[in-house]
Structures are given as C-alpha cells and as structure tokens.
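tokens incoming
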C-alpha cells in the first residue's frame, strides 16, 4: 500500500525536523516508506547517495530500537557519533561490540531497555553471543538494517564469513521485523546472494537501485609499458595536469608503493608510501600529512582509503589493475567527492593479470574460479573499445547509452578504429546454443577454435558442423567477441550455475535477424608513444596563477592555525575566488562555502592578495559575484543554528529537520567548516565526561590534523570513544577555527 498524501507530508516533516533537509535525495522517500510499511527493503546506493538516512530516519520515527549490523568498529563509531550530533542525548544511538567494557555494555543495554536508544550498531560477531540474543529477545526491535551487505556474498569485494550467519542470528532473536539491506556496490550476482542469504521476502521485498554513475569522473586506460616509462608517464601527468593537487596512486605490493613514492619525491612531487607493512604510527602520520596537504600524493596498496573523506582528491591512478571491477569502482570513487572533475587513469598490461592468476593456484577450486572470473571482468573493462562508463554501469546492472557519457572516458573522447563482427557474433551465440547453454566460456572457445580436447571427443562436439568455425582467428579475438556479446546483452553468465554461458532472448533474435556490431580488437599495449593531452576539469578557473597563489596562502594560514587546509577554504571556494575576484567582505561571503563569519575569520588575507593581484595585472572584475546555492539550503542551516542556540537536543533537531543523525552531523560539519560558531556545550556537557572533553581538546590543540581516525588511535588507550572524539572535534573546529 502506498503512503497517503498525509503520510508523505509527515515524512517530509520528519526529514525537516530531524535532519534539516527540505527534500529527499533520489529514492530515499520511497525507500523509507517501504520500511515504514513493514516491507523487507533492499537498497543499492553508491557512496554519497544518502544510504544512512534510509534507516536512520525510520529508526527515529518508529517505536523501539533499530539494530544496524556493521562490519567495522571504526565505521560504527563514526555513524553513532553522527547520529548523536543531531541529538541532545547520547543515548539515542549506541554501538555494542568488543571495544566496550562490561560496564559500558551494561549502560548500553539499560538505555535500550529504558526506550532511550533508537539505533544500535552491532558487529555480526556480537549477535552470536547467547547473552546478547537473549537480551534482544526481550527488547522491542523496530527493524534490522544490514549495512555493507555485499560482505554477505563471496562474489562481493569485501566478503566476511560471519555475515553469512546473520539470518540464523535473526531467527534466534525470534522477532518478525522487517529487514533492510544496504550496499554501495553490488552486481546482480551479489544482489541475488544477499537476498537469498538473508531470506528476505518472507514479507514483501522492495528493491531500490540508484544510479552508479559518477558524472564528474573521467575514466581512462593507458598501456602499461616498462616500469621506468610508466613511472615517467605518471610524473608527467602529475606535473603537467595536477601540480600541487591531491591524488592517490594504487599499487599491488608494498615495494612498488615505496619505490614509486621515492621516485616522485626525487622529481619534486610531495609523495609518501602507505601500506600494511608500515607501523601504525608511520601510517597515521602519512595519512595526516595527506589530509594536511604536506604531501600531495599517496602511493598506496588497497590498505589505504577506508574512512578517508578528503573531498578534493583530483586524480586516482592505478599503477596496477585491481582484482575486481568492484574494487576499481570503490577506489576510483575516492576522486572528486567535492563534485569537481576527478581523473581516473589505470595502466594495463595483460601480463599483470596473468601474474595475479598465479596467486590463485593454491586456493580452493571455487575460490580460484571465482577469482579468475572477477579478473576476467577487469580484462574486459581494460580492453573494451566501447564507452567505459557504459561498461561499469552495465556491470552493476544499470543501462546506459554512450551519448550520455559526454566524452568523459578515453574511448568516447577519442574513438578507436573498429572492425565489423556481425558474423563472428552470430558464431559465438550459435556455438553456445549448439552446446545446449551448458558450458563455461573456456569450453565454448575451444569448440569455436576446433581444439581436439578430450572433452570435445568424449561428448561428440568435434563431430558437430560448427566445430572449428573460428579456427582462423586466435583465442584473444574470440574472448573479445564473447565480452562484447555480454556488453550488448546477447549472452550472459548464469549466476546460479557458476558462470555457464546462456543466450538471452535478444541473442536468440540476433541469430535469426543480425545487425551490424563493430568492436576494436587489436589493442596496442606494446611499448610506444602515448598522447598526454590534458583532460583536467573543474569549475571555470579563469586564473590559474591566482589559484596557485591562493592555495599557497591557504596552506600557510592552515599551518599558522594548525588546521588542515580544507578547513580554511575548500577547493571549490578557491576556484570561485580565482574566477570572481572578490575584494570585499560582502563579496567574499557570497563565495560558495564561505559564510560571513568564515569570511571575517580567514578572508582578509585572501582579499588583500586578490586586491593586489587585480591591481597589478589590471584585471577587470565581474560586476556581480555569482551565488551558488542548493535550494532552501540556507533555510535549513538557519533552522539548525537557531535550534542549537535554543539548546534543543541534537536528536530532536535531526528529527525536526527530517534528517538522520548522520546527515545532521554532516550538516554541522558543513556549518562549522563554513565559519559559523556553534555553541554545543549544553549538549556535550551532558554526554561527554569532563576529563574526556579536556583531553580531546588538548589533543587537537597539539595535533597536526583534525583526523578523527588519527585522534582515536592516539586516545583509545585512554578509553575515549570514537563518538566522543567526533563530537569534540565539532567543538574544536567551532571554537578554534571559527
């Protein structure tokens, strides 16, 4: 049953009340309604799309406590801190995991029993304990949310065996409540695994898949040649396109990370290595230096990235190809989170894939075959001549037409020469049908090539008319045909039968009534020249010289105040200054991301620099500063600030603004980073111990960064929680930066 107009109004009222938003993003409204109506609900929504709100808002609205299952303790702390930031009472959200003392666990359970806790974050391991299961049996549970649900699937990029037992644990709790599963990346196979393993659908299950398209990212594959030449290309890319910009270079092993960082340093690029072999203190220092812009480039294994929320990463380079498309999508997604263009370049050589496959030899058969198939998808992406954006979105089950790419991938920007493969496409489809759609690609390829294997002879395949129909071409050619047949939805891999090739209805039609299909087969990944033309994007910065001056000024001011540079002003703000040339406080306060308070706090040196630059270069300024705003955003901010001035609990502010606690914390971050001072003592004094308050503030006064992760590593031995650090960080920025 769909919600009535009154219910919709009530939902929007709640969004405004709790989180200060005037409108839902994407399908949030429908997702929340689905859960409120008691349906199992499956949410696939990329990072930044607002997944957390989908369970935080209904948790605040419904009676009882929502259980949120999360895989990482650090992320749990972050989420709980975020929720508490919207409320006057810390009890509104808790986490229950191995990091708590017995006394702390007792306090959490008492708050749940007393009906004060609306969201409880738990690790799946926590649910296995008999005492916890018995406790939950006695509680009023509103619903269960499984965050990072891809961890359930062995086909996911971050498989956790304990996630496979969640359904058993929920059954043991013996409460018939709806389940919400949420993930940022899930292929159709992983989606099916999640639904099946959680047994979702005993109630009606509603599935919501948001677009995976990151329109501001430019995707490019370059041939990986000799090590020295590839590093030379990387240095050239950084120096010509991204001088003094933040970027991440991903590699497969620790030695490459260190060697590459050293090479960049020698070439006057501020870089540092990051991998699991470094001691925690060194890793933390490197990460902090990256956030503080003391180094511009991180050379990292995949150990780097989780929990990093640096908005101005302008490029992500893969020196080595990742092991799956999911990993690639996650890692490239760390670029351009501020909405400006990010460039994603991957260096590809098939020999790297063959080396990776060697590591699979000692794995169990199922894991070996699964790993090989995931890597084959990476090969398909690297070698496709079609739109790369279309390929990525197709991989996640999303339809996309090439013309929408806007030349934001190398294949659309510079189309490669193609060959017509209509006959060959028919041959592949017919071969799959000849073998009764019952074999993997390897067997079908052997059939087409006419290889006299034991399997071909034993099953009589070598006697068939089409045996050897493609013997005049090599295996690489036919692999390309298979991959493009999949991209064009003519064939597919049967996910329940471990990758058996099947022919779609469209494919069966194609055999009878074919149409032209052209692909690029011969990719030149040999040593040679490469076009290094600039694809850097962003706002229309009219003056690069001024932009560099403003960035240098920001860095010096940040060091003076001992704050990360982006706390002073973020890149989009500087770019707008370099476009609009503000020379008064009024002009400055109209720049995106700069409040009047922030302009008064930090703006004068920037105004002086811009004024001198304008006069010395006789620049004609635009007559009007362009004001960029999100609809009704200022109204929401004013409402939140006013509510805090009235000392309303943050949980109530979140509810009043129809926000999740996480989203309110994000909004509070935005407010304090824009220069507004928030007086949060009325809330913090209730929920954070006096000793903890003093310790955290003293830490931030001495620290080189406001990184919550770095602070937690430093302070966890003092039994200071992630949540307490996050809340006190808001106070620190508000009191000392604004």
């Amino acid at each position: 049953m769909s919600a009535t107009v009154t219910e919709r109004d009530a939902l929007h009222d709640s969004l405004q009340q709790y989180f200060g938003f005037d409108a839902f993003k994407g399908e949030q409204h429908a997702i929340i309604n689905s859960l409120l109506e008691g349906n199992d609900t499956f949410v696939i929504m990329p990072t930044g799309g607002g997944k957390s709100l989908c369970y935080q808002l209904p948790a605040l609205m419904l009676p009882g406590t929502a259980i949120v299952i999360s895989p990482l303790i650090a992320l749990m702390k972050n989420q709980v801190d975020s929720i508490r930031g919207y409320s006057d009472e810390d009890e509104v959200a808790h986490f229950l995991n191995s990091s708590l003392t017995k006394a702390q666990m007792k306090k959490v359970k008492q708050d749940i029993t007393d009906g004060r806790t609306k969201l409880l974050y738990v690790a799946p391991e926590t649910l296995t304990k008999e005492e916890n299961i018995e406790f939950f049996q006695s509680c009023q549970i509103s619903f269960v949310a499984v965050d990072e649900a891809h961890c359930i699937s062995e086909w996911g990029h971050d498989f956790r065996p304990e996630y496979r037992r969640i359904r058993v644990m929920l059954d043991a709790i013996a409460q018939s409540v709806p389940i919400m599963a949420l993930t940022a990346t899930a292929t159709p196979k992983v989606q099916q695994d999640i639904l099946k393993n959680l047994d979702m659908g005993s109630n009606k299950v509603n599935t919501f898949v948001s677009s995976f398209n990151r329109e501001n990212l430019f995707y490019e594959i370059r041939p990986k040649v000799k090590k020295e030449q590839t590093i030379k290309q990387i240095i050239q890319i950084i120096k010509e396109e991204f001088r003094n910009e933040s970027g991440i270079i991903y590699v497969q092993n620790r030695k490459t990370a260190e060697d590459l960082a050293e090479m960049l340093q020698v070439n006057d690029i501020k870089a540092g290595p990051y991998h699991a072999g470094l001691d925690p203190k060194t890793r933390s220092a490197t990460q902090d230096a990256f956030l503080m812009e003391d180094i511009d480039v991180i050379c990292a294994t995949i150990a780097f990235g989780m929990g990093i929320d640096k908005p101005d990463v302008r490029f992500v380079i893969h020196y080595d190809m990742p092991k799956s498309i999911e990993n690639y999508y996650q890692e490239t997604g760390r670029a351009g989170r501020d909405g400006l263009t990010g460039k994603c370049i991957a260096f590809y050589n098939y020999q790297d894939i063959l080396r990776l496959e060697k590591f699979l030899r000692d794995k169990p058969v199922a894991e070996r075959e699964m790993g090989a198939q995931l890597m084959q998808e990476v090969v398909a992406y690297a070698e496709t001549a079609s739109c790369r954006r279309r390929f990525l979105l197709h991989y996640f089950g999303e339809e996309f037409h090439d013309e929408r790419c806007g030349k934001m991938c190398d294949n659309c920007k510079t189309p490669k020469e193609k060959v017509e493969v209509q006959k060959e496409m028919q041959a592949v489809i017919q071969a799959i049908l000849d073998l009764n759609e019952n074999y993997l690609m390897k067997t079908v390829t052997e059939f087409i090539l006419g290889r006299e294997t034991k399997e071909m002879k034993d099953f009589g395949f070598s006697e068939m008319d089409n045996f050897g129909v493609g013997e005049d071409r090599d295996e690489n050619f036919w692999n390309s045909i298979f991959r493009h047949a999949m991209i064009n939805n003519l064939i597919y891999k049967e996910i329940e039968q471990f990758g058996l090739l099947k022919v779609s209805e469209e494919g069966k039609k194609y055999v009878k009534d074919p149409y032209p299909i052209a692909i690029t087969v011969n990719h030149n990944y040999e040593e040679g020249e490469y076009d290094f033309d600039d694809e850097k994007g962003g706002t229309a910065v009219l003056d690069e010289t001024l932009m560099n001056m403003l960035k240098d000024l920001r860095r010096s001011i940040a060091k003076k105040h001992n704050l990360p540079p982006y706390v002073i002003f973020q890149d989009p703000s500087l770019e707008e200054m370099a476009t609009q040339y503000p020379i008064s406080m009024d002009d400055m306060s109209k720049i995106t991301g700069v409040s009047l308070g922030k302009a008064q706090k930090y703006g004068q040196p920037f105004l002086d620099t811009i004024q001198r630059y304008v006069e010395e270069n006789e620049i004609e300024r635009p007559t009007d500063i362009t004001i960029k705003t999100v609809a009704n955003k200022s109204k929401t901010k004013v409402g939140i600030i006013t509510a805090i001035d009235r000392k309303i609990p943050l949980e109530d502010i979140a509810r009043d603004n129809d926000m999740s606690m996480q989203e309110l914390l994000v909004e509070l971050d935005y407010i304090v980073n824009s220069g507004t001072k928030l007086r949060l003592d009325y809330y913090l004094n209730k929920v954070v111990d006096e000793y903890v308050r003093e310790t955290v503030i003293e830490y931030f006064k001495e620290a080189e960064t406001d990184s919550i992760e770095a602070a937690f590593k430093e302070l966890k031995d003092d039994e200071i929680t992630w949540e307490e650090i996050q809340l006190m960080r808001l106070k620190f920025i508000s009191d000392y930066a604004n």
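note: The two ends are 49 Å apart (CA to CA).
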